[in-house]
């Protein structure tokens, strides 16, 4: 019986060799799926004790959905809703946020099309060079974690120094550049609301450069042959100030609330907003940087696009 059958982790295999083989293929998780695998490679299998501890039914708590249309009317109600969500859950969804539905759809399509490029084309962007502003890869922390995540990523560093469009592949260039422009506008609105939620001038958070650094991460989660044995993204909190997430219809995002995993269901035309570690810090712990993860799924590919407002050296 294989390790994948048992859900255990063997110590008899050469983990480093398998990690290097996966990394050097430059094919990512999608490459494994394209090769026709039916069992999860051992480097992706979660430790037995983690699997055993994760046997709970997700809570039915409802994630707040905030209608930003109200900012042009009774702004105080929107500020109050943002304050409550930021202080209690650390995450909320926004609708009527000003980013056109067409832009959302084109961004998800572009992200998917990049990850589905021929391997010889996509592989040219595969790198672990931290200085590259555009890079494709799988598991940025591949060699440092106990197990790999079932996810590939295209990272685009959009600011503080503007990204030259030619650095992006043609298949996603226009969509990502336009989405970045739209998200910067929304980010400015959100930082204003969050500033007011702290009892500060609306311009405060932007004035201390919270919105200066900006990266876009296009995540691709292929269908997984044994999703119960791994994760799409391991539990973590975001290191920056704020993350704005565009997710497709498949779902899988969960947040940790009162020691229970809460599903963050896709809402049509909505964007997910979560507080990061830096914003928790500068808010004197008033805002909560929420831990979250993405579960693997038989369905797929799942596509999401995370826009992270962060400090950037």
Give the topology, please.
Elements: H1 3-6, H2 15-25, H3 28-34, H4 48-53, E1 65-67, H5 75-88, E2 91-95, H6 101-115, H7 119-122, E3 134-137, E4 152-159, H8 170-197, H9 204-207, E5 213-221, E6 231-236, E7 242-247, E8 253-257, E9 260-263, E10 271-275, H10 277-282, E11 292-295, E12 302-310
Parallel strand pairs: 1-2
Antiparallel strand pairs: 2-10, 3-4, 4-5, 5-12, 6-11, 7-10, 7-12, 8-9, 8-11
Helix pairs in contact: 5-8, 6-8
Explain what this protein looks like in three dimensions:
This protein has helices at residues 3-6, 15-25, 28-34, 48-53, 75-88, 101-115, 119-122, 170-197, 204-207, 277-282; strands at 65-67, 91-95, 134-137, 152-159, 213-221, 231-236, 242-247, 253-257, 260-263, 271-275, 292-295, 302-310. It is an alpha+beta fold and 313 residues long. The chain has one domain (3-310): B-lactam Antibiotic, Isopenicillin N Synthase, Chain (Jelly Rolls, Sandwich). Helix 5 packs across helix 8 (170-197) and helix 6 packs across helix 8 (170-197). It starts with a helix and ends with a strand. The model is unreliable at 1-10 (pLDDT under 50). Its cofactor is Fe cation. It comes from Arachis hypogaea. This is Fe2OG dioxygenase domain-containing protein. One of its GO terms (molecular function) is metal ion binding.
């Amino acid at each position: 019986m294989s390790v994948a059958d048992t859900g255990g982790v063997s110590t008899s295999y050469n983990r480093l060799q398998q990690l290097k083989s996966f990394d050097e293929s430059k094919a990512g998780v999608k490459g494994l799926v394209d090769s026709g695998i039916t069992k999860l490679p051992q480097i992706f299998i979660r430790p037995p004790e983690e699997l055993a501890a994760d046997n709970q039914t997700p809570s039915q708590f409802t994630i707040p959905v905030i209608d930003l249309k109200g900012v042009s009317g009774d702004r105080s109600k929107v500020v109050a809703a943002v304050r409550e969500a930021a202080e209690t859950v650390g995450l909320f969804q926004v609708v009527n946020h000003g980013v056109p539905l067409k832009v959302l759809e084109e961004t998800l399509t572009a992200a998917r099309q990049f990850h589905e490029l021929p391997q010889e084309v996509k592989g040219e962007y595969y790198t672990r060079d931290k200085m590259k502003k555009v890079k494709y890869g799988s598991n940025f922390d591949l060699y440092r974690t106990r197990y790999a995540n079932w996810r590939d990523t295209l990272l685009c560093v959009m600011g503080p120094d503007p990204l030259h469009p030619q650095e992006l592949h043609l298949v996603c260039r226009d969509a990502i550049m336009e989405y970045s422009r739209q998200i910067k506008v929304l980010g400015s609105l959100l930082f204003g609301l969050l500033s007011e939620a702290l009892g500060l001038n609306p311009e405060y958070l932007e004035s201390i450069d919270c919105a200066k650094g900006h990266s876009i991460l296009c995540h691709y989660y292929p269908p997984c042959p044994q999703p119960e044995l791994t994760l799409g993204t391991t539990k973590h909190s975001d290191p920056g100030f704020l993350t704005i997430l565009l997710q497709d219809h498949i779902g899988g995002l969960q947040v940790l609330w009162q020691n229970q995993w809460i599903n963050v269901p896709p809402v049509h035309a909505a964007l997910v907003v979560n507080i990061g570690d830096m914003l928790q810090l500068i808010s004197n712990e008033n805002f909560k940087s929420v831990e979250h993860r993405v579960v693997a799924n038989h369905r797929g590919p799942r596509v999401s696009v995370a826009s992270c407002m962060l400090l950037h050296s």
